[in-house]
Amino acid sequence: MQLADSLGFKFHTINGAPYWDESAYYQFTLSQIEEDIEAPTTEIHQMCLHLVECAIDSEQMMERLRIPDYFWDTIRRSWLRKDPHLYGRMDFSYDGQSPAKLYEYNADTPTSLYESAFFQWLWLEQMIDEQKLPVDSDQFNIIQEMLIEALVLLKKHHLGDEPLYFSCSEGSDEDFGTVEYFRDCAVQAGLTTRFIYTEDIGIDRQGQFTDLNDMTIPSLFKLYPWEFMLSEEFGVYLPASNTLFIEPPWKAILSNKGILPLLWQEFKGHPNLLPSYFEDDSPGDDLGRCFVKKPLLSREGANITIMKSGKVLDFADGPYQDSGYILQKYHPLPVFGRSHVLVGSWVIADRAAGIGIREDCSPITRDSSRFIPHIISG
Fold this sequence. Notes:
The chain has 378 residues and is of the alpha+beta class. It has helices spanning 2-6, 30-55, 59-64, 72-80, 113-129, 143-159, 173-188, 226-231, 251-254, 259-266, and strands at residues 13-14, 17-18, 26-28, 87-93, 101-106, 164-167, 193-195, 202-203, 209-210, 219-222, 244-246, 276-278, 290-295, 305-308, 311-315, 325-329, 335-336, 339-348, 351-360, 370-372, 374-376. The strands form 6 sheets. Strands 4, 5, 17, 18, 19 and 20 form a 6-stranded antiparallel sheet that branches. It has a 5-stranded antiparallel sheet with strand order 12-16-13-14-15. Strands 7-6-10-11 form a 4-stranded parallel sheet, with helices on one face.
């Protein structure tokens, strides 16, 4: 792990156990990638954008998603002026044979970007150089190229010569590593960048966000969820802020598991969706007796419960207990060896760009679940 340390991958080990795990890799065919993962990712992303279009004019949908009403107009304006977005990650259950099933869309602050975009590609190159993989081995991984391309367009159409600030909370090697990777891509795209911890962002007398030098922050990439921002003391200043946020305010709609029942309502029967309902609705018979209870607002598997006939099969503890819940039909992750395997499919701007794979001994994927590289062969 000396190479990982030297490249800033400080979170390759979590609580003494490997997070980055190259003791194995997953192999896909090109058709599996193109037809079973890339195409559904692109289609579902467009379906999600359709939901945003509907939600900005629907008080009922905004209320269902538990978004504070003082922020509704901000979201609507953000969408109508086409505020740019950069990335998101869809999580799928995929066994290599049946249609991939969407678990959720991490559309605001998804992590595992660095290891997906950069470190697993480096692993592939090294494996080929050491003749441990055939020279024609490939990956579904154009994340970094597309990210830099999107950042070039961000500079051209929105930022000009103004700096893009990057921010995360103190105390997380993973968050800091993700932000620094994003910042490095921005530098390669020709942007001027600056870093500030979220805790150090201030407010001036005009209600604008400022850095430690009391300079106004014109644009901010924030690895800090919208729902956290809206619950903070400074949340009331967000509607009047002139800062361009990445991800934009309209992503507050998509970074919410409430989109799962909304997607099912709008596109019922879609082969890549699972029957899903708000907990306080009357669920359809298609939910079945085995389902997953998920908070509208939660991260990394926290507070997820797997239920069968009223009994708890598995549960992940966490702090997200007051946002309301959705129910999603249980579709177990495939098990290879003794590991439950989740496929994270990345969206850069509006295009499917690559995947990262997580393994866990539990059917619930957590922040400590191992990251396993993949290849395309055949």
